[in-house]
Amino acid sequence: MTALLQVDGLTYHYGTRVAVDGVSFEVQSGEILALLGPNGAGKTTAISCLCGLLAPRDGVMTFEGERFTPLETPSQRGRLGVVPQELALYEALTAAENLLFFAQLHGVSDPESAVARGLKLAALEGRAGDRVKTFSGGMKRRLNLAVGTLTEPSLTLLDEPMVGVDPQSRNHIFDSIENLRDQGRGILYTSHSMDDVERLCDRVAIMDHGKLMAIGTPAQLATEAGIPEADLERTFLELTGRSLRDESS
Amino acid sequence: MIRNTMIMVIKDLRLFLRDKVALMLAVLLPIVLVTVFCSIMTGMGGGNGGMPSIEVALLDQDQSPASNAFVAAFGDMQGISLVLAEPASTRDDLVRLVHDGQRPFAVLLPEGFAAGAELELIRDPGRSMSLQILSIGLVRALFETRGEELLWEIQSRSLEAAGIPAEWTTRIEAFTTPFRQAMKSLFTDAAEEGHVSPDAEADGEDFDFQQFALQVLPIQTQDVLPSGRQEQITYMVSHSVSGMTVMMIMFSLVGFARTLLEERKDGTMRRLLCAPINPLTVLMSKFLGAFMVGMCLVFILFAYAALVFDFSFLPHWDTVLVISLATVASSTAFALLIAVVSTSDKQADGLSTILILVMSALGGAWMPLMFMPEAVRTVGQFTLTYWSIEAYQSVFWSGLHWTNPTILKDLGVLLGLALVLVFVAARVFQRRRLSGFAS
Q1: Given CA atoms B296, B297, B303, B307 in this order, what sign does their dihedral have?
Q2: Could you give phi then psi for residue B418, rounded to 5 degrees?
Q3: Per-residue pLDDT averaged across B297-317, rounded?
Q4: Do B275 and A84 touch (CB under 8 A)?
């Protein structure tokens, strides 16, 4: 089966520092792949290469069977959904205005419908006309997810989408992501929360020092790490060590 | 690209208009500064052509009709503001006033002034430019008060200064006195026959020293008022409005362009650059949005100046529009470059404040460059404020049309600067984008 996204030997350097070192993985349609790693492991840099924010020094990316060079090819950038870690929203605009702006920018053919769809996904139909700065953290996170999936992309990159979210909003976002998977869409998900990853993700890729340490289902990784039961946190610590990581990515 | 640019411009303008505090500051602050500067420069319509008045303390110890006439003539001179000292004051009081910096100049009319005693000027020698204006005022007042006696006094002092012995001067006076008396008699006869006004001759009223000097000196003069200049406008009003507008536009536009930094900080830049658009669209939309805001601000400031300072720009609307387009384009390009090269709000604030203030000072936004040293005037030509103010003054003061080569040159420089600054901003933006400034 052809992978939705295929990444082979992805490499990126910040000056002389190797941030991503020959990383390879793939994401299938209808699959949620978690990208785990301590701070500075290279997760965000890898995602930035996929978004078209950074030019990889080496490696090949293939998306839906085509060579994927989003930095050089603007039209390819719109094919991915991106949900950044920051609440990348205009606080002085309303929820509907944020959705409409990004829908128009992505050239969505029916922006009004996309706005209605986004409001529904974020469960903000009743607050469509309210400015984002009046929203709670959970509402903003839901809207952040809705903006990232406005174009109904076949692959969405979710970078820490649950930061600062109350349990209700967290549950809503879980449901939304699972719904996307059930529609046959692929998800690349980064998080530091092992609980979130265990609940959502089909497979897990663990990065450290820019390299891919292991990839597989949580059970497979536990077996590889010699952990008797599928405990993702223990597996993660076994593979990446217990030393503190204070460097930024 | 145009469609995406317009989508982003609408978004930026909507954000700008919704920030009420920033909006009020962007409009009110320039208005306050234009008001303050225009008021300072013009003495709130003092009618002296915009020159600040020189304060002079005066003590009249003579209290004679001649000294009263001198005080009246001296006080009437434009640019001089007389502050009469108490009659009980002394010369030492005047010296103290100047010494303590309370007044730059003091004039003492001693007892016997009417009989020819010398007046005394007590001065701060550092006020050389004011001193020149003051000297003209003193000479004029003395002429108006002492008339022909002063002429002979000047003549005898000149002879003495040239080394002529005192007894020779007496001899010269002896044979010129009958001539002067004959001249006086001639004037009396002429007055009786109606050739000259005896009243004007006698009390000095309506006597215009400047006009008289120009008549008797071998100088031909012709007054040429530029056809487009309004009579009521003064140089300093037009200069203050132009200078403050140019300076405040730059501050406001930097504020608008700084949204680039905010978008980097809040992550929306990441989202924009992940969209299927040319990344330079982001920059173009900032340019266009800031440009529109800048044009609105120019209109608001000129309209305000028109209401408060009788500064009507409507007779030259086409030239003002063309100059404003070039000024706002270059200022927007400058603001964009500041926003692109800065990596934080503090950097942008510091950099823009320093550059705008320096450019405003050197470019003549605060004070006309004609009052500044030659070196400053030369350096000033490397600022965009200089070219904007030159262009505005060419229309407001000289009444030139934008097709005049003088203004075309200013426009060429401003548009050239705009192109260069936008090009550099685009290069820096692209380089920073590729190095991951939004990742």
Answers
A1: positive
A2: -60, -45
A3: 85
A4: no
Average pLDDT over residues A34-56: 89
Place of tokens 């082979």: A8
Give pLDDT, residue B49. 47
ipTM score of complex:
0.87
Distance of alpha carbon A215 from alpha carbon A34, whole angstroms: 9
Which of A53, A77, A104 is nearest residue B436 as measured by Cβ atoms? A53
Strand partners, A211: A208
Which tens digit of pLDDT belongs to each residue from A199-222? 888 899 988 888 988 898 888 888
Quick check: B111 and B117 in contact, CB under 8 A?
yes
CA angle A31, A35, A36 (to 5 degrees): 140
Mind listing the pLDDT tens digit for each residue in B81-90?
Answer: 889 988 888 9
For residue B112, the tally of other CB atoms under 10 A from its CB is 13
- Hey, CA dihedral for A76, A82, A87, A93, is it positive or negative? positive
Residue B29 Cα, gap to closest chain A Cα (Å): 23
- For B188-223, give the DSSP string: HHHHHTTSS-HHHHHH-TT--HHHHHHHHSS-----
Continuous H helices in chain A: 43-51, 74-77, 95-105, 111-121, 137-148, 167-182, 194-200, 218-225, 232-240
Spatial distance between the Cα atoms of A184 and A35, rounded to a whole number of angstroms = 19
* Distance (Å) from the alpha carbon of B340 to chain A's nearest alpha carbon: 17
B268: nearest CB among A45, A55, A89: A89
Residues B353-408 have pLDDT tens digits of 999 999 999 988 888 877 778 888 888 899 999 999 999 988 887 788 899 999 99
Mean pLDDT score of chain B, rounded to an integer?
Answer: 84
Burial class (CB in 10 A: 0-12, 13-18, 19+), B133: middle
